[in-house]
Write a structure and sequence with these properties.
five-stranded parallel β-sheet, 424 residues, single chain, globular, 18 strands, alpha/beta, Urease, subunit C, domain 1, eight-stranded mixed β-sheet, TIM Barrel
C-alpha cells in the first residue's frame, strides 16, 4: 500500500533467533515497523517507494533482549542504602541517558527488575517517544521482607520504609503487590533469599552462596504469587541457594533470577517444570573485574570470587541437565556496571558452555519470553516488530562481535548507523 512506510534490508547473513541455521544473502521487508517478509534477497520484491538499506557483508540478527537489568539512576560507586534520599529528578535524567546508550549498543528490549518509580516512569517516557531506549517491562520497586533480600540493614528502619519495599505476612504481601500495580508494574519482583548468617557483610547475596535461607514463608509466597497471577502479572524471584529456589518452584514463580547454589534434585525440578532461569553472569563478572580498580575491600573480593565460582559450576550443570536459560545481566549503571555492556553476557555464556547459537536464542527469543513479549519481539519473523541489529563478522564463530554492533533498528526506524564511520 502506497501510504505505508516500507524498508528493505539486505544482508550477507541472517541469524533469526529461532535456532534455525543461519541464512545467506537475505532480505527483510518491513512495513510500518513490522516485518512482512523474510527470504533470499533475489526473491523479496519491495514496493517502488521502499527505502533500501544494503548492509553488505554484515550479519543481521534480532536486537539483544536483556532479561534482567536495573535503572536505579544511582552511581554504583556509592552505598545503595542512601538511595531513598537521592534526588529523583537527577535519577530520572540519569536513567534516560543510560537507556539511550543501551539502545545504541543494540539492546532493543529490557526487563527492569526493581528501581521504584523510576523504572515504570522510564518505560512510559520511552513508550511515549520522549526519550530513546529499549522496549521495557518494569517491576517498579522490589518486594522484600523485613531483614530480607533488599532491606538496607545499615540504615534506620523508618528511613528504609520510606522506599516502600518491605512487606511481611500474607496480608502484607498481597497489599504490596497491589501497591506495585498502582505504581505501574507489569512484573512483580520479589527477594526470596538472603544470607543465612546474621551479620553477613552482604545481605542480599550472602558471603556464601550455599548458606542462604528463604526470606519468605510458603504461605506468604503463595499469597504473593496468587495476587500477582490474578492480576495477570508474572513473578520474578531473586533466588540464591536451594531453599529459595525450591520455594519459588513450590509457589509457581515464573522466572528465577540467578538460580545457583542448588543441588541436583532441585536442578531436576527446574527441568521437569520448565521454569526459566535468568543467567546474570555479568553482574558478578564486572564485580570481579573491577575489584582492584574500584578498591573493593578484601571480604567483598572473596565474596564475589565465591559467587562466580558457584554460579559457573551450576550454570554448567544446568546446561547439561537441560535447564532453560534466558540471558540477563543484572547491570545497574556506571561506573562499575554500565548497562550498555549487556552483550558481554553472550560471551560469558559461551565461555561457560553454551554453543553460540544456543546463547543467541537465549538472549533474544527466550529473553523475550521472560518479558512476555515473545509474540512481538525476539526473532526475525513475519508479524514481529522490526527490532534488528547488524555487525561485521559471524557470531557463530566469534560471539564477541555482538559487542561491536554497527547498525540498530527499532520498530523499523534506524537508531544508529555506524557503517560508514566504523565508530563503536
Amino acid at each position: 500500500m502506497p501510504d505505508q512506510q516500507h524498508t528493505l534490508l539486505k544482508a550477507r547473513r541472517l541469524i533469526d533467533g529461532t535456532g534455525a541455521p543461519a541464512q545467506e544473502d537475505v532480505a527483510v521487508l518491513i512495513a510500518d515497523g513490522v516485518i512482512r517478509e523474510v527470504g533470499h534477497r533475489d526473491e523479496i520484491v519491495a514496493p517502488p517507494h521502499a527505502e533500501t538499506i544494503d548492509l553488505g557483508e554484515r550479519t543481521l540478527m534480532p536486537g539483544i533482549v536483556d532479561a534482567h537489568v536495573h535503572f536505579f539512576g544511582h552511581g554504583t560507586d556509592r552505598p545503595f542504602g542512601g538511595l531513598p534520599g537521592d534526588s529523583r529528578v537527577y535519577r530520572a535524567l540519569r536513567v534516560a541517558g543510560e537507556a539511550k546508550r543501551m539502545l545504541e549498543a543494540g539492546i532493543t528490549a529490557a526487563r527492569c527488575l526493581g528501581s521504584d518509580h523510576i523504572g515504570p516512569s522510564l518505560r512510559d517516557a520511552i513508550n511515549d517517544g520522549h526519550v530513546p531506549g529499549p522496549r521495557m517491562v518494569a517491576a517498579g520497586n522490589f518486594i522484600s521482607s523485613t531483614a530480607g533480600t533488599f532491606d538496607h540493614l545499615s540504615v534506620p528502619l523508618d528511613f528504609v520504609k520510606t522506599d516502600d519495599l518491605l512487606a511481611d505476612g500474607v496480608d502484607g504481601v498481597r497489599d504490596m503487590v497491589r501497591r506495585r500495580i498502582r505504581q505501574g508494574a507489569d512484573v512483580i519482583k520479589v527477594g526470596l533469599s538472603r544470607s543465612g548468617v546474621i551479620g553477613d557483610n552482604y545481605q542480599a547475596w550472602g558471603e556464601d552462596p550455599h548458606d542462604q535461607i528463604a526470606s519468605y514463608s510458603l504461605e506468604e509466597m503463595q499469597a504473593l504469587a496468587q495476587e500477582a497471577h490474578r492480576n495477570k502479572l508474572k513473578v520474578s524471584a531473586h533466588c540464591i541457594g536451594d531453599d529459595a529456589v525450591r520455594l519459588a518452584l513450590q509457589t509457581d514463580v515464573d522466572t528465577i533470577e540467578h538460580g545457583y547454589g542448588i543441588n541436583d534434585e532441585t536442578r531436576r525440578m527446574l527441568v521437569d517444570r520448565n521454569v526459566l532461569v535468568v543467567s546474570t553472569i555479568c553482574q558478578l563478572y564486572y564485580h570481579v573485574q573491577g575489584a582492584e580498580r574500584f578498591d573493593y575491600p578484601e571480604w567483598a573480593r572473596k565474596l564475589f570470587d565465591r559467587h562466580i565460582e558457584a554460579m559457573q559450576a551450576d550454570f554448567e550443570k544446568g546446561l547439561a541437565a537441560g535447564v532453560r536459560y534466558a540471558l540477563g545481566t543484572d547491570l545497574i549503571g556506571t561506573p562499575t556496571h554500565p548497562q550498555e555492556l549487556a552483550a558481554k553476557e553472550f560471551e560469558m555464556a559461551v565461555a561457560w558452555g553454551m554453543d553460540p547459537m544456543q546463547a543467541i536464542v537465549a538472549g533474544t527469543r527466550i529473553s523475550a519470553e521472560a518479558m512476555s513479549m515473545d509474540h512481538v519481539i525476539g526473532t526475525v519473523e513475519p508479524g514481529k516488530w522490526a527490532d534488528l541489529i547488524a555487525f561485521s563478522g559471524d557470531p557463530l564463530k566469534d560471539i564477541t562481535v555482538l559487542q561491536r554492533v554497527e547498525f540498530v533498528m527499532q520498530g523499523g526506524e534506524t537508531v544508529v548507523d555506524r557503517r560508514s564511520t566504523g565508530l563503536q
